[in-house]
Amino acid sequence: MLDRITSALPATVILVSTLIPNLNSATEANIETINAAIPAMVKARTDNGALIYLADMHTGYITDADLNQVDGIHPNDGT
């Protein structure tokens, strides 16, 4: 998808995010595997001139305490 966007609209700025944490340990392990691959994917494209920026939403920005304790997936609404 990134390649299609940058080919069709090379002046477009794209923001890519890592996945947020998850309280389920098996799901979190999968998220960590996926997140580990994202920086290299972004760098490969920025090295070729793409205007892509990475927002790390997993490391310290959203913590386990921010997640809905019922589903362990979604950030809570603060109430």
How would you describe this protein?
Helices cover 37% and strands 10% of the residues. With 79 residues, it is α+β, with helices and mostly antiparallel strands. Strands 1-2 form a two-stranded parallel sheet. The chain is elongated, with a radius of gyration of 15 Å.
Q: On the 0-100 scale, what is the average pLDDT? A: 93
Structural class estimated from helices and strands? alpha+beta
Number of helices, counting only DSSP H or I runs of 4 residues or more: 2
Oligomerization: single chain
The number of domains = 1
State the distance separating the first and last CA atoms: 36 Å
Number of strands: 2
| H and E order | HEHE
Point out poorly predicted stretches.
Answer: none
Rg for CA atoms:
15 Å
Largest sheet: 2 strands, parallel
Strand content: 5-15%
What's the helical proportion of residues?
Answer: 25-40%
Keywords:
79 residues; alpha+beta; two-stranded parallel sheet; single chain
Quick synopsis:
This protein has 79 residues and is of the alpha+beta class. It is built from two helices and two strands. The protein has helices at 2-8, 25-46; strands spanning 14-17, 52-55.
Task: Note the topology.
Blueprint: H1 2-8, E1 14-17, H2 25-46, E2 52-55
